[in-house]
Amino acid sequence: MPAHPYSRHLHTVEQLRAMERAALSALGISGPELMRRAASAALNSLRRHWPQLQQLCIHCGPGNNGGDGFLLGVLAREAGLQVELVALTAASPGDAAAARAAWEAGGGRVRLWDAQSELPDAELHVDALYGIGLHRAPEPVAAQLIEAINDSACPVLALDVPSGLDADTGSCPGAAIRAQVTVTFVAGKRGLHTGRAVDQVGVLELATLGVPDSVHADMLPDARLLVAEALPPRARYANKGSYGHVLVIGGEYGMAGAVRLAGESALRAGAGLVSVATRADHVFALNAARPELMAHGVDGPQALAPLLERASVLALGPGLGQAAWGHALWLTALDAGKPLVLDADGLNLLAREPRRFGSPTVLTPHPGEAARLLGTTAAAVEQDRFAAVRELARRYAAVVVLKGAGSLIADPDGRLDVCPWGNPGMASGGMGDLLTGIVAALLAQGCGVWQAACLGVGLHARAGDRAAQQGERGLLAGDLLAPLRALGNGMMGYEHD
C-alpha cells in the first residue's frame, strides 16, 4: 500500500478517539458510514492477501469493532463469498446495532459463542472482537474464543487491533489474537509497534478511510516511527581527526569480547579513532584480532586519566563488571563530563548510584536494566514501555533507548521514536555492545545526541535484518558489521529497507 503522509505518526487511544470525532465532523458523515469505510478497507485487504479465498468466518464483539465485522460480512457476502458470523453477544449497542441489522436484513445468521461452541469451518478467521478500548484481559468466554482462533490452522485478519492487545501500550493482559495481517483504521496506534504487539499484529496496514489530512495535521503524534537514514557523504578534505575519538571502557576479566565488539562497531560506524581501556591481560588478544583498535591496559583511574583527555566520546559499560575495578573506572569516566553512551554494567552501577547528566548522554537499557534504574520489575517495564522510557529520560536527564522488540527512544522532554526494524535473531550476546559502539561513533562524528540515538538504533536494527536474511537462528553480533558499514554509507540496495 502507498505510504500515507502521516503513516509515521503514532497516537494514543485518547488521541484516536478525538481524531475519529473530528473526522466525522470534517467528512460530514455518520458513525455507520465510517464503519462501512472500515469494512470496505478490510475487504480490500482480505482480497489482496488471500485472493483465492471463498469461505471466511467473522467474529464480532459487542462494540464498534464488532460493527466493522458485521458490515464486512455484508460486503463479503455481496462479493460472492461464503460468510459465517460468530458473535459474543445477542445484541449490539449504538452504531454497531445498525451494522448488525444490515447483516441480518440480508438473511445473515449470527451464531452466539459460548463455552460449548466450536469454530465453524473456514479458510480465514476475521477478528472483530475488540478494538482500541480494551485495556484489560478479555472475559473468559471471549478468551476461550480467542484461543480457539489461535489454535486453528487458519490465518487471521484482525480489524484495527488484534483483540486482547492494548493499543496504548502493546501489552497483552490476557489472551490475545495472533494475526497474520492487521488492517488498522484512521491513524497509527503506538501500541501496535512495540513489546508483545510485534508477535500479534503480523503484517500491519494503515487504512485512513478518507480522513482529511487536516485531522492528522491538527493532532500532534504521541510518537513517531523511525525512517531509514544514512550519514551524508564525507568531505574530500578530511582526516581521522575529523571524525572523533571514541574511548570504550570495560572488559573485566573474561569479558574482552564486549569491548572488542563495541570498539569494532564504532570503527565500522565511522569513528576516526577508537581506543579501548580494559584489563591488561586482554590487550594482546585485542591487538591481534583488530589492530585498528588502540587497546590499553588500565589498572585504575590514574591510568585511565590520559585516555579520557584524548577522547571526544566515551562508551562506558560493556563487560565492565561491578567490582572495585569497574566501579573506579565508572566514577572517573562520569566525572570527565564527556559525551557518553552508557550500557550494561555502566547502567547497573547507575542504578546503585543514581545521578542526572549534564553532558550529552545516551542510556541503552534492556528491560531488566531499565527495571533496576526505575526500582521496579522487568514485567512492569514491559507492561508500559512508553511510560518507562519517558520516565527514565526524565529522571536521568538523558536520551534513553529502551531495547527490545520495537525499541523506543525518548528524550527528557517526552519526544519519542519507535524502531520498526529488528528480528528475534538479534536476541543473542553482544548485540547491545554493538549498539553502544555505533551510537558513540555517531556522537563522535558530530551528530546531536537525539540524532545519534535514533540513527544508531535504526542502523543497528536494519543491519540485523540484513544479516538475518540467511536465517535468524544462529545470528552472531559480528555478522552485523558488514551490513552496518554498507547501510551507514547509504549503499544501493540497503537504504530502502
Automatic annotation (TrEMBL):
UniProt keywords, alphabetically: ATP-binding, Isomerase, Kinase, Lyase, Metal-binding, Multifunctional enzyme, NAD, NADP, Nucleotide-binding, Potassium, Transferase
Subunit structure: Homotetramer.
GO BP terms in the entry: metabolite repair; nicotinamide nucleotide metabolic process
NCBIfam families associated with the record: yjeF_cterm, yjeF_nterm
Residues the entry annotates as binding AMP: 403-407, 432
Species this protein is from: Rhodanobacter denitrificans
Catalytic activity, EC: 4.2.1.136, 5.1.99.6
Domain YjeF C-terminal intervals: 223-491
InterPro entries tied to this protein: CARKD, Nnr, Ribokinase-like, YjeF_N_dom, YjeF_N_dom_sf
Cofactor note text: Binds 1 potassium ion per subunit.
Lineage, opening ranks: Bacteria, Pseudomonadati, Pseudomonadota, Gammaproteobacteria, Lysobacterales
One Pfam match: Carb_kinase
The keyword Lyase is assigned to this record: yes
The protein, known as: Bifunctional NAD(P)H-hydrate repair enzyme
Annotated positions binding (6S)-NADPHX: 64-68, 131-137, 160, 258, 319, 366, 433
Catalysed transformations (reactions): (6R)-NADPHX = (6S)-NADPHX; (6S)-NADHX + ADP = AMP + phosphate + NADH + H(+); (6S)-NADPHX + ADP = AMP + phosphate + NADPH + H(+); (6R)-NADHX = (6S)-NADHX
Cofactor(s) demanded: Mg(2+); K(+)
Entries under HAMAP family matching the protein: NADHX_dehydratase, NADHX_epimerase
GO MF, one example: kinase activity
Cell inner membrane found in the keyword field: no
Gene that encodes the chain: nnrE
Task performed by this protein: Catalyzes the dehydration of the S-form of NAD(P)HX at the expense of ADP, which is converted to AMP. Together with NAD(P)HX epimerase, which catalyzes the epimerization of the S- and R-forms, the enzyme allows the repair of both epimers of NAD(P)HX, a damaged form of NAD(P)H that is a result of enzymatic or heat-dependent hydration.
Residues binding K(+), per UniProt: 65, 127, 163
Family to which the UniProt record says this protein belongs: Belongs to the NnrD/CARKD family. In the C-terminal section; belongs to the NnrD/CARKD family.
Domain YjeF N-terminal, first and last residues per copy: 16-217
